[in-house]
Amino acid sequence: MPKFLELLKNYPKKVKLSDLGEFGFIDRIARKYPTKNPSILKGIGDDSAVISLSEGLIVLLSTDQLIEGFHFNLEITDGWKLGWKSLAVNLSDIAAMGGVPIGFCLSLGIPSQRISIEFLDDFYKGITSLGERTGVELLGGDTSEGGERLTISVSVLGKASQGKVIYRQGGKDGDNLYVTGYLGDAALGLKLLKKGVYKKGMENIINRHLCPEPRTRTGQLLAERGIPNAMIDISDGLLADLNHLVNQSGVGAEVNLCLLPLSTEFRAWAAVYEPNPINLALRGGEDYELLFSASPEKSEEVDRLSKELSYPITYIGKLSRKIKGIVVKDEKGKIKEVQPLGFDHFRDG
Question: Which domain holds residue 77?
Answer without folding.
Answer: 57-161
